[in-house]
Structure formats: structure tokens, C-alpha cells
Amino acid sequence: MDWKPQVLAEGLEFPEGPVYMGGGVVVFTEISGARLSRYADGRVETIARTGGGANGATLGPDAAFYVANNGGMNAGPEGVWLSEEAIPGRIQRVTADGQVSDVAVDLPGEPPHRPNDLCFGPDGLLYFTDPHNWEDLANLKPGRVNRTDLLGHAEQLAEVKRFPNGIGFGPDDRLFVAESLSQNVLVYDWRPDGLGAPAVFCVLPAGLPDGFCFSADGDLIICGSLGDAILVYGSDGRLKDRFDTPQHSEPTNCCIGEGHLYVTYSGTGQLVACPCGWEPLPLYPSRAEAAASRGTE
């Protein structure tokens, strides 16, 4: 495809976590704005103020949004930003009418907790990354891959040394995790009782792997933040394509909807859309619902 995106929204405060809702509507987080926002019909509105730093987001089985709140921080070429209204990192639930509640606050391991990105899994649980104390990169401790039920019972599944970031289940139900500071994308075999040993799926040639999505064909589309690049990998882990974004745009995350790739640019505070012709790989829990439907046909 030709990388000729249209700017949908500007002036955003470190956008992240886009979720395509259909009909050109995109819900996304704004970390520095401490909110969940919605783009529709050419304008942006606030769904809810979350406090802290709303980072990743995903849609739940109850039509509510689930947010990985890192407590109130982000980072770019200019360094680390810390909110003056920080909260302990947590997983939150946000309804379409803006009601915010906590899902998981008592998180595994030593604090600080910095939930970054999240996704539902085949078991109906929420899987999320926690990069730990990344406000102090010189003394960075190993991060975590965790999961929680919707009652807040969280457990640690894996340790990731160099900043676990984006997370998602691939078409074969393996769990993919971006390890930003190594430039690796890791992959784990999944089973109901936990994860297998990690393997390196790919190593980015530019930028640090951040948020990502999958096409229905199994391609991995990953944002190379701090590198102004979007990279496309086939299911064999080989690089198929690369799109360079504007200098200092810092793409953080992406999603596919109705033949368009939607990308959040944290550096320039923009939401953009580019015609791509791809269909999205359904996310859980809708993937499980689609499989069950096929099984009854």
C-alpha cells in the first residue's frame, strides 16, 4: 500500500491504545490528558477522565472499555513526563457513558506498577504488560506479563527484562509481547495454566516495538516508536514492508477497521488513518464468539 495517511485529529495529549468501533469511530487513550477519548464525525470528545495515565485500551465482553493505567507517565525524545496527579498503576473499566471503576489494583510483584497495554485472552481473562520502574531506565528492573480476572485477582505469568510493552494474541493463539528496549517481539505458547518459554519472533530494524495489531491474514503490524516507522511482518517473522512516518511523529499503537489502518502519533499528538485494504484479525472476546458461531453452523 502507499503510505498516505489522513490526519483525523490533532492536539491530542500523547494518544495511545486505539480501538476501532465501526463507522469510522475510534476510541483511544490520551496518557498526558488522563482520559479515554472518542473520535467520530470529524471531532474528538472525552468519554471519561481516568486519572493517572491511561495507556492501553481494549473492548470487553460487556461493551465496556478496559484501560491499562500506568499511573501517570510517558516518555519521548524529550525525556520522561510524570503527572502531578499520579495514582498507583491499575486496570480500569470505563463504560460508554463515562463511568470509571477499578478492576485490578493489587498487582503482582514489587511496585511501582506501570500497566502499559492489555488484551483479552482465549480464557476470558485480561492479559497485560507491566514494565515496572521505567521512569528510572538507568536502574530498570525486569517487567512483568500478568493476567487478571474481572474481579481483580491478578497473577504474574512471565518476567520480561527489557520493558514489556504491546501485547496481543496472534491467529494461532500464541501470545505476542513487544520487548521495547531489546527491539524484540517475543512470542509465547499459551495454555490455560500459563505460558511457555519465550521465543524471539522478530527484531525491529528501526525504532522500539510498541503497540501492534494483526491482519486477518496473520501479518503483524507494529509501531516502531522512537523510530518513526511502522513495520509489517509475515507469520514467518520476516519483514514484508516498512512505512516511514513523519519525523518525531513517534507512532505508538494501531488498529485496523474497514480497510484502514488507524495509528496514534504520540510525538505530534495526532490520530491518522491510511487506506490499507486489510481486514483485522478479530480480538478476544469477539474472536471466541465468532468461533463458537462457526461451530454451530
What does this molecule look like?
The chain is mainly β and 297 residues long. The chain has a single domain, classed as 6 Propeller (Neuraminidase), CATH 2.120.10. It has 1 helix and 28 strands. The chain has one helix spanning 286-295; strands at 6-9, 15-22, 25-30, 35-40, 43-49, 54-59, 65-69, 73-76, 79-82, 90-94, 100-104, 118-120, 126-130, 143-148, 154-160, 164-169, 175-179, 184-188, 190-191, 194-195, 199-203, 208-214, 220-225, 229-233, 239-244, 251-257, 260-265, 270-275. The strands form 8 sheets. A 4-stranded antiparallel sheet has the order 1-28-27-26, with no helix packed on it. A hairpin with a 2-residue loop joins strand 2 (15-22) and strand 3 (25-30). The longest helix has 10 residues, at 286-295. The radius of gyration is 17 Å and the shape is globular. The N and C termini lie far apart (35 Å). The model has no long low-confidence stretch (mean pLDDT 95).
